[in-house]
Specification:
- By secondary structure, the chain is an all-alpha fold.
- The chain is about 45% helix and about 0% strand.
- The chain is globular and about 50 Å long.
């Protein structure tokens, strides 16, 4: 249930896709920008297959935003602290829901990060880290959330995570980890994340093509999932460490 809980908390941060929600609008704006650029590019000849979405469009937007750091976070919209619990209080704005849920999200991550050595929380951490990393592809999105990301807790968790069966080269690689899990390259939570507004910034465009886990095996939990999950989490932590120096936090060090 860890991946489902992580996904549900993220959905609440977006206010379930409310068009007035700042974070949702930020992701949709970037998605539409990429799609517009893609549509304006010359199309292949009819005899040639239509390529998957050009990954360089996303990478170029990402690089343009982060390469000139440090970033003055005061220039970007940030979450306003919520007013606390009040009897019979009602949310008047979508962003108020985001403000309310983020401390709960932060506390959930911090609590689970203390369960050192517990492999049962890996799916939760995997989905959570994937969401945080995906937010770096949307200009201003991680800055909007950064004060509610428990960086120190995540660093402790990742630096104490078992590396049995994990490739150090894979952790530091630029490319998305493609380690096999025993029945295929997808993990059960990959199918839960698939199609969400933020997951297209995480998965390679062809990740669900070709070698896809059989439908009746997608929810099976197997011991062979542990190493690929750990490698994904460590890879995500390493990627986040590469951009954290431009944020107000500078303690994201994965060893």
């Amino acid at each position: 249930m860890g991946a489902e809980i992580a996904s549900s908390l993220i959905a609440l941060i977006y206010d379930f896709g409310n068009d007035d929600n700042h974070l949702w609008k930020s992701f949709r704006t970037t998605h539409n920008k990429i799609k517009r650029i893609q549509d304006d590019k010359p199309q292949p000849l009819p005899s040639k297959p239509v390529p998957v979405e050009d990954p360089m469009l996303k990478e170029n937007i990402h690089a343009k935003f982060w390469r000139n750091g440090p970033i003055n976070t005061q220039e970007f919209h940030q979450v306003k602290p919520h007013g606390g619990d009040k009897p019979e209080a009602k949310f008047e704005l979508s962003d108020e829901i985001t403000s309310y849920i983020l401390p709960i999200w932060c506390a959930s991550i911090s609590t689970l990060a203390q369960k050192i050595g517990d492999r049962n929380i890996l799916p939760f951490m995997h989905v959570t880290l994937a969401f945080i990393w995906s937010s770096t592809y949307v200009p201003g999105a991680l800055i909007y959330l950064e004060h509610y990301v428990p960086w120190a807790a995540l660093v402790l968790y990742l630096n104490t995570l078992s590396r049995s069966g994990v490739s150090d080269h894979g952790i530091e690689a630029q490319e998305f980890p493609q380690q096999q899990s025993g029945i295929g390259r997808q993990l059960p939570e990959d199918f839960l994340m698939r199609g969400l507004v933020w997951s297209s910034y995480y998965f390679p465009g062809d990740f669900f093509d070709g070698q896809v886990v059989d439908e009746d095996e997608r929810t099976l939990e197997m011991p062979s999932h542990a190493a690929p999950r750990a490698e994904r989490c460590l890879w995500l932590g390493h990627k986040l460490a590469s951009v954290s120096v431009t944020l107000s936090t500078n303690d994201m060090h994965i060893y």
